[in-house]
Design brief:
The chain is mainly α. About 40% of the residues lie in helices and about 0% in strands. It contains one helix and no strands. The longest helix is centred in the middle third of the chain and has 7 residues.
């Protein structure tokens, strides 16, 4: 489900950190 990085960031901007 993690295909789009931009889409994921919109939901969880602090997910990669």
């Amino acid at each position: 489900m993690e295909s789009s990085k931009g889409q994921d960031e919109a939901s969880l901007p602090m997910k990669e950190q």
